[in-house]
Amino acid sequence: MEPHDFESMSMDELWSIHVSVASVLTRKISAEKALLDERLSQLGVSVLHHPARKMTSTPLFPKYRNPAEPSETWAGRGRHPRWLIAQLRSGRQLDEFRIQPSSDRGAALRDVLTLMNNSQSIPRERWLIDSEG
Questions:
Q1: pLDDT digit string, tens, across residues 38-78
Q2: Residues near 112 by beta carbon (within 8 Å), at least 6 away in sequence
Q3: CB 3.0-4.6 Å disulfide test: which of 9, 20, 33, 113 passes with 13?
């Protein structure tokens, strides 16, 4: 096998090598997979090939808002955003940035999402939304 000076090669030459390597890897991986499947079948182990399930997540409502920049919000999960860290270090409390629920409609929507996630029942009073609000 001859060494290559990749830095001096043109884009076309590098792409050609890339295509060749990808092709060889695809063939070798397929052959190895077939060999492993054959060995598993000899052992009596069944392998089901399922496509990978896509992780889905429900939309999170923001719970905290930056008063200086209202478009910056945080749902309360993961790391604290930079704006919140700076405010907390200056002595302010987390609850000062909490977004207040605007109406029962938002609570009902959160209940629906909770129901979808937890398969629990919601009290009838919560899902009957007042049409005046």
A1: 888 888 877 666 666 677 777 788 899 999 998 999 999 88
A2: 122, 127
A3: 9
Beta carbons of 92 and 80 less than 8 angstroms apart = no
Q: Is residue 99 classed as helix, strand or coil in its secondary structure?
A: coil
pTM higher than 0.85: no
| Residue written as token pair 């629920």 | 101
Instruction: Name which of 96, 127, 42 is nearest 34 in CA terms.
Output: 42
CB 100 within 8 A of CB 126: no
DSSP character string of 13-53: HHHHHHHHHHHHHHHHHHHHHHHHHHHHHHTT------PPP
Question: Which pair of structure tokens corresponds to residue 133?
Answer: 């609000």
Q: Of 77, 55, 53, 48, which Cα lies nearest the Cα of 64?
A: 77
